[in-house]
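Next up, a specimen:

>
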Amino acid sequence: MLYKIRSRGNYAHLWNFEQFRQEVDGEVADYELNGNVIQSITYRVQTAIPQHKLDEYLFIGEPIEE
């Protein structure tokens, strides 16, 4: 299952994305940058990411068809 993750604001740090990845047991499948700013990271996960986990990190999560 793939999820495209974006920050709700403009200020998510790489470490936020990395800690989130570890907590959801995800694997980076793809990413988008604008210069050195992370626009989104797509993670491959085994189970659905709960909304409360996205809210905790101020992320927006979009499931993607594989």
